[in-house]
UniProtKB/TrEMBL annotation:
GO molecular function: CP2 mannose-ethanolamine phosphotransferase activity
Protein topology in the membrane: Multi-pass membrane protein
GO biological process assignments: GPI anchor biosynthetic process
Keyword Glycoprotein: yes
Family: Belongs to the PIGG/PIGN/PIGO family. PIGG subfamily.
Keywords from the named record: Endoplasmic reticulum, Glycoprotein, GPI-anchor biosynthesis, Membrane, Transferase, Transmembrane, Transmembrane helix
Identification of the protein by name: GPI ethanolamine phosphate transferase 2
Transmembrane segment boundaries: 464-484, 504-525, 592-609
CDD domains in the record: GPI_EPT_2
Signal peptide annotation: none
Function statement: Ethanolamine phosphate transferase involved in glycosylphosphatidylinositol-anchor biosynthesis. Transfers ethanolamine phosphate to the GPI second mannose.
Entries under Pfam families matching the protein: Phosphodiest (PF01663), PIGO_PIGG (PF19316)
Organism expressing this protein natively: Coemansia spiralis
C-alpha cells in the first residue's frame, strides 16, 4: 500500500513539473535569432548604382564612417528629468543642449529595467526578456554572455579593428568576454557605496583618454543608481551626484575635443570623436527599477561631437521641456552608431537610425544608410516567418510605375509590401528624380516602425495558451494530491464524508482564499507584506476574542500593540513608502534617541544569545531537553520515558533547571561530545557578539551616529580599529559572522 502511494506521489510530482514546463514556455517566449555575425557581404545592392547600370550593384559598402573614436559614458539609472528637468544639476550638459551643440532624446527602455537586459538591448538592438532579469542577479553567470551573438562591440572590434576599453560595472565583462583591451570592473551589488564605486571609474577618465591609444572607451557609473536605492530620487545626495556626473561629461568631452583638433591637424584623413551620455534604465518615485512604469523606462541619450548640431527647432530655452517628451526607442542606438562608424548593423537588431544624427549627410548617402537598415530588419522578419520571400531588384523595379497598396493582407505580407514600396520609391527617386528624398525616408521609416512594433510584440509578449495550459495541469495535480490525502488520512482527511464539511478552520480557509486572490494583483511583489500585516493582526484579534483567561487576552493585546509599532516603524513597499513613519520621525527630530535605541537593540541581541546557552550533562541516553516555559520548567514526555530507569538523577536535573531557570541538555555524547558542544556554544555567543558589534560600527561610521551620541573622534578612532577599515570589508565580515553564527546555532540544538 505504501509503495503504491509513493508511486502516485511521484506521478503527481512529474505532472506538476510538466505543468511548470508549459508555464515557463509561455512566460519566456521563444525568440528566433539569426546565428552568426553580420558582414559586408550581407549588405543589399546599391539602388543608385543599379539605376545607373553599374556592374557592381551587390554588396556595395556602407557610407564612409563619420567618426573614428567613441566615448560611451553610461550613468546607471539616469532618468530623463535628471538631465532635462528644471531641478537638474547637470548645467553643462543642459547648456550644450540649449546652444544646439548637443542632441538629446528621452530614450524609452523596455522591461525588465535592470542592467544586464538593458546592456544587451543597447549593444544588440534586441528585446531581452525577464529571464535576463534573473541572470542579472547572478554575478558569476556566464550563460548570458554575448560572445557568440552579434553585437555592436564585436562589429567595431572586428570590422574596424577598434581598441575597446571599459571601466565600471563588471556586467560588461560577463557580457562581452575577450572584447576589451584594458578594464577595471566594479561590483554593482554594494548598494550602500555611493562614493568609491564612482571614484574607481573617474580615476581612469583623464589618464585613459589622454593616452591616445584607444578607439572606444566605456565608463559605467553606478553611484547615482545606488543613491536611488538607498534614499530615492529626492535624496539630498542626488543633486551633488548629478553635478559630479556633469563635471565628468565636461572634462571628458574637452579632453577628446582638444585631441581631435590636434589629430585632424596632423592627419587630414582623421575623423572626430563621438561622445554619448546615456542611461541603461531609470528609477521610479522611490528609487527602484525593474518594472514598466513611465519613470522606470524614461532614460536619456545625449550626443556630443563635431558635426552634431540640433535642428533649429530644437534649440533655445524651451528645448529641455521638449526633450522630456521627445521619446525614441532605446535600441535605436545600435543602428545609429553602426552607420556612423561604417560597420554592419548586428543581425538581430530591431532598432532604427535616429534621423537627427543622419541629417548632415547628403540625400543619396542618407537614403543608402536607411536602405541598409531596412534590409537588415527585413532579414529579421524573414527569419521569424519563413514564408516571407526576399524582395529582388527586378521586383522593386517593377513597382516603380504605380503606388503599391499594402492594406488587407497578413502582418508579414504587409511588412514585405511596405519594404517593397520603400525600395520602389528609392529607385524611382534614383532613376528619374521623381518624388523627394523626404518621401523615400518616410517610406523606409514606415516599414521599420511597423516591423519594430510587430517583432517587439512577438519577442516580448507571452504565450497565454501555454501559460493557462500549465496552470491547468498544475491545478489538476494539486486536486489529485488532495484526493490522495483524503484517502490516506485515517482521521478523514481535510474533508469529512460523514459531516460533509471541511476540517479546516474558517479563518485558515479565508486566509488561503484571500491569498490566492491577491496573487493576481499587479502589486503583489511590492506590497505582499501588507497582506500579512493585515492577517497577523486579524489572527491576533481572533485570539483575543477566544481567550479563556484575562491574562491571555492581555498578553495578546500587548502583542498586537508591539506588532503595530513594528508596522509603523518603517514604511516599505512602493505605494506608501513616502508616508511618515517612526524611523523618519527619529531621524529628523530625535536622531540621538534613535542611536540609543540601536545600541540597546544590539545589547538585547547579545543578551538573548547568551541566554540561549544550554548546560550539557553526560548521561546514558541520547538527549532530553528540559526547557523553561514561563516561570516553570517542564520535561518532555518522551524524555521522561527515556529516563524512567534513572528517575532520581532526572528529577535532580529538573530541580536544578527550576532553580537556574535555564534550559538543560542531557546528553549521552560522553566527555568529548560535551566539550565540543560547550566550545560550539561559546563560538556561537562570540560570533553573534562580534557580528552585531561590527554591524553597529558599520552603520554608525557610515551615518556618523557616533557624533550624535557625543563620542569623541579619538575614542571613535580606537573603536574603528577593532573592525576592518574598509566599509565593504565590514559588510563582508558581518555576512561571514552571520553564517558562522547560524552554523554554530544549529550545532548547539
Amino acid at each position: 500500500m505504501q509503495g503504491r502511494r509513493l508511486c502516485v506521489l511521484v506521478a503527481i510530482l512529474l505532472v506538476e513539473l510538466v505543468g511548470l514546463g508549459y508555464f515557463i514556455k509561455g512566460f519566456f517566449p521563444y525568440k528566433k535569432s539569426i546565428p552568426g555575425f553580420a558582414t559586408r557581404q550581407d549588405l543589399p545592392w546599391d539602388i543608385k548604382q543599379a539605376a545607373s547600370g553599374g556592374s557592381s550593384v551587390m554588396n556595395a559598402p556602407v557610407v564612409a564612417a563619420r567618426y573614428d573614436r567613441l566615448v560611451i559614458m553610461l550613468v546607471d539609472a539616469l532618468r530623463n528629468d535628471f538631465v532635462f528637468g528644471n531641478n537638474s544639476a547637470m548645467t553643462y550638459t543642459q547648456e550644450m543642449l540649449r546652444s544646439g551643440n548637443a542632441v538629446g532624446f528621452t530614450a524609452k527602455a523596455l522591461a525588465p529595467t535592470v542592467t544586464m537586459p538593458r546592456l544587451k538591448a543597447l549593444m544588440t538592438g534586441t528585446v531581452p526578456n525577464f529571464l535576463d532579469a534573473v541572470l542579472n542577479i547572478a554575478e558569476s553567470d556566464t550563460s548570458s554572455s554575448l560572445k557568440y551573438h552579434d553585437n555592436l562591440l564585436w562589429q567595431l572590434k572586428n570590422h574596424s579593428n577598434k581598441t575597446i576599453n571599459m571601466f565600471g560595472d563588471d556586467t560588461w565583462l560577463r557580457l562581452f568576454p575577450d572584447v576589451f583591451t584594458r578594464t577595471d570592473g566594479t561590483s554593482s551589488f554594494f548598494v550602500a557605496d555611493t562614493v568609491e564605486v564612482d571614484r574607481n571609474v573617474t580615476r581612469h577618465v583623464r589618464p585613459e583618454l589622454e593616452r591616445g591609444d584607444w578607439d572606444v572607451t566605456i565608463f559605467h557609473y553606478l553611484g547615482l543608481d545606488h543613491i536611488g536605492h538607498l534614499a530615492g530620487p529626492n535624496s539630498p545626495l542626488m543633486r551633488p551626484k548629478q553635478k559630479e556626473m556633469d563635471d565628468i561629461v565636461r572634462d571628458a568631452f574637452e579632453i577628446v575635443s582638444k585631441q581631435d583638433m590636434e589629430r585632424m591637424r596632423r592627419d587630414p584623413s582623421a575623423k572626430p570623436t563621438l561622445f554619448v551620455l546615456l542611461g541603461d534604465h531609470a528609477m521610479n518615485e522611490i528609487g527602484n527599477h525593474g518594472g514598466n512604469s513611465q519613470l522606470e523606462t524614461s532614460t536619456v541619450f545625449v550626443f556630443l561631437g563635431q558635426g552634431i548640431r540640433s535642428p533649429s527647432l530644437a534649440k533655445g530655452s524651451d528645448v529641455l521641456s521638449r526633450l522630456l517628451t521627445t521619446e525614441v526607442p532605446q535600441i535605436n542606438l545600435v543602428p545609429t552608431l553602426a552607420l556612423l562608424f561604417g560597420v554592419p548593423i548586428p543581425k538581430n537588431n530591431l532598432g532604427m537610425p535616429l534621423p537627427e544624427l543622419l541629417a548632415s549627410y547628403g540625400d543619396s548617402e542618407r537614403l543608402r544608410m536607411l536602405q541598409v537598415s531596412a534590409h537588415q530588419m527585413f532579414g529579421v522578419v524573414r527569419a521569424n516567418d519563413p514564408d516571407v520571400r526576399e524582395v529582388t531588384l527586378a521586383e522593386a523595379a517593377g513597382s516603380v510605375g504605380a503606388p503599391v497598396n499594402c492594406e488587407g493582407e497578413s502582418t508579414s505580407d504587409v511588412l514585405r509590401c511596405k519594404y517593397k514600396r520603400a525600395l520602389a520609391a528609392h529607385r524611382r527617386f534614383a532613376v528619374s528624380g521623381r518624388g523627394s528624398a523626404g518621401r523615400v525616408e518616410r517610406e523606409y521609416y514606415d516599414f521599420m516602425v511597423h516591423a519594430n512594433e510587430h517583432l517587439s510584440r512577438a519577442f516580448s509578449g507571452y504565450d497565454l495558451g501555454a501559460m493557462f495550459t500549465g496552470m491547468a495541469i498544475i491545478g489538476a495535480a494539486a486536486a489529485a494530491l488532495v484526493v490522495l490525502c483524503q484517502a490516506s488520512d485515517r482521521s478523514g482527511g481535510i474533508f469529512s464524508t460523514k459531516t460533509w464539511g471541511l476540517r479546516v478552520s474558517i479563518p485558515t480557509a479565508a486566509l488561503l482564499v484571500t491569498y490566492l486572490i491577491s496573487i493576481w494583483s499587479s502589486s503583489l511583489i511590492e506590497e505582499e507584506h501588507q497582506f500579512w500585516y493585515f492577517w497577523t493582526q486579524t489572527m491576533l484579534a481572533l485570539r483575543v476574542l477566544t481567550s479563556t483567561t484575562a491574562g491571555d487576552a492581555l498578553r495578546t493585546v500587548l502583542q498586537m500593540g508591539l506588532f503595530r509599532i513594528i508596522r509603523a516603524w518603517n514604511q516599505t513597499g512602493q505605494k506608501w513608502t513616502g508616508e511618515p513613519d517612526i524611523r523618519l520621525y527619529l531621524n529628523s527630530s530625535h536622531s540621538g534617541l534613535m542611536w540609543i535605541l540601536v545600541v540597546a537593540t544590539v545589547l538585547a541581541v547579545n543578551v538573548a544569545a547568551h541566554r540561549l546557552h544550554m548546560y550539557v550533562y553526560p548521561g546514558p541516553c541520547r538527549s532530553v531537553i528540559v526547557r523553561r516555559g514561563g516561570g516553570r520548567s517542564s520535561a518532555h514526555a518522551a524524555g521522561a520515558m527515556a529516563y524512567r530507569r534513572d528517575a532520581e538523577e532526572y528529577g535532580r536535573r529538573v530541580a536544578e533547571a527550576e532553580q537556574t531557570r535555564v534550559a538543560v541538555l542531557y546528553s549521552g555524547a560522553g566527555t568529548a561530545g560535551l566539550r565540543v558542544l560547550m566550545v560550539t556554544q561559546r563560538v556561537f555567543r562570540a560570533v553573534v557578539g562580534y557580528a552585531s558589534f561590527s554591524a553597529l560600527v558599520y552603520q554608525m561610521d557610515r551615518n556618523h551616529g557616533w557624533r550624535e551620541l557625543g563620542v569623541s573622534e579619538g575614542l571613535w578612532s580606537l573603536v574603528r580599529l577593532s573592525v576592518p577599515s574598509d566599509q565593504a570589508q565590514i559588510a563582508r565580515l558581518v555576512y561571514l559572522c552571520t553564517a558562522l553564527a547560524l552554523a554554530a546555532g544549529v550545532a548547539c540544538t
